[in-house]
Write a structure and sequence with these properties.
two-stranded antiparallel ribbon; two-stranded antiparallel sheet; Four Helix Bundle (Hemerythrin (Met), subunit A); single chain; about 260 residues; flat
Length: about 260
Amino acid sequence: MFCLLAFSAYSMDGFIWFDDSNIKSKKLMSQFDITKLPKGPKGFMSDWASDQKAFKGVPWGKAMMWIFLLSDTFIFSCFLISLMTARASTTVPWPPTSEVFGLTVFGTSVPLLLIAIMTFVLITSSGTMAIAVKYGYEKNRKLCGWFLVATALGGLTFVGMQAFEWSKLIFHDGIRPWYNPFGAEQFGAFFFMITGFHGTHVSIGVIFLFIFARKVLRGDFDTGRKGYFTSMKSNYEAIEILGLYWHFVDLVWVFIFAFFYLW
């Protein structure tokens, strides 16, 4: 009667059980010798690649997009927290946003009219983006492509209205990052920094929306055609990843609208 000693060694595939009479145990143990692991840049890549077990079933593109959006969240949070700190600490009255961003329509001043339209357009584009993702997973090339075009046009409209808003404040009202005739000088700096940074995100998103719309309508995602700057084959998963970015841009605008324009 032999007394078997059970040992467990963790491996990439689970648990390996062996006894002391197993001649191959030494060979198995040698596989876990840390001196045989790759060193230098190859070792770093090997360690990083092994972590994909933590994201099993999650495409790398989607995981990296979430990490990027998390870092972007910190940046926008710093901007908005700095804005609230400046408003709470300044001794000069903060400009009334309802008057600064108001428009005169048929002789009547309407507060925040342009901003309300911009918000409506951007949130609507988020809806068309969600529909594009839906049709993308259904592999409905035509509807997916045209809803991407509709989303891009919504974003382009938003950027155009923002350009009109900037030109009005700069050339008509005389607002500068270092000067503001309506009150606290910090107002101009925060306005151009926050809305400019967000507008850059929207502009980049619009460019990619038009590119992806062309790829979808051309059938690149159906045939698996490779892109210009990558050897990876195209697929409709990229539409969802682009949708994550676009929904994030829309969500950030909701916070900007609340903390900058309404507060």
